[in-house]
């Protein structure tokens, strides 16, 4: 609300540096992505025999990585079914336990655009939404 008041006073729309100055908004977006990732998972085909943590994946076999099981695993997150954006404060985001946009060479190129769009939506929702309760006879 402080940012909105300042921008209204200056008569300026929000800009990129404003977007970057809202770390808690990013925590809310990150937690939303953790709990309700749009991408269910990814399928990969082993191009050669691969051993991961003692498991052999033979050449030609496909592996499906189910992101939601990783994002909701209590071994990775305390209270995984509780919406808690504060868990992301001062946390390293490069963990392979958080992959809503893929990772490595296959990191989604739209990652920053998606976060920007979510930030803009949240900004308008929080600063302009007014309850319609009572305006139509509701109690």
From TrEMBL:
SUPFAM superfamilies, sorted: Cytochrome P450
Pfam families: p450
Domain of life: Eukaryota
Record's GO cellular component terms: membrane
Locations listed in the record: Membrane
GO molecular function, one term: oxidoreductase activity, acting on paired donors, with incorporation or reduction of molecular oxygen, NAD(P)H as one donor, and incorporation of one atom of oxygen
Coiled coil: none
GO biological process: brassinosteroid biosynthetic process; brassinosteroid homeostasis; sterol metabolic process
Assigned keywords, A-Z: Heme, Iron, Membrane, Metal-binding, Monooxygenase, Oxidoreductase, Transmembrane, Transmembrane helix
Membrane-protein topology: Single-pass membrane protein
Family that this chain belongs to: Belongs to the cytochrome P450 family.
Database matches in PANTHER family: 3-EPI-6-DEOXOCATHASTERONE 23-MONOOXYGENASE CYP90D1, CYTOCHROME P450 26
Name of the protein: 3-epi-6-deoxocathasterone 23-monooxygenase
């Amino acid at each position: 609300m402080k940012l909105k008041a300042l921008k209204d006073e200056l008569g300026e729309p929000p800009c990129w540096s404003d977007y970057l100055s809202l770390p808690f908004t990013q925590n809310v977006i990150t937690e939303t992505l953790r709990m309700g990732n749009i991408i269910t998972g990814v399928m990969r085909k082993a191009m050669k025999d691969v051993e991961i943590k003692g498991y052999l994946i033979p050449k030609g076999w496909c592996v499906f990585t189910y992101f939601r099981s990783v994002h909701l695993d209590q071994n990775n997150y305390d209270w995984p079914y509780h919406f808690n954006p504060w868990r992301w404060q001062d946390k390293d985001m490069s963990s392979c336990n958080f992959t809503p946009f893929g990772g490595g060479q296959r990191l989604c190129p739209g990652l920053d655009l998606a976060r920007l769009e979510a930030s803009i939506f949240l900004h308008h929702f929080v600063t302009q939404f007014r309850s319609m309760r009572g305006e139509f006879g509701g109690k």
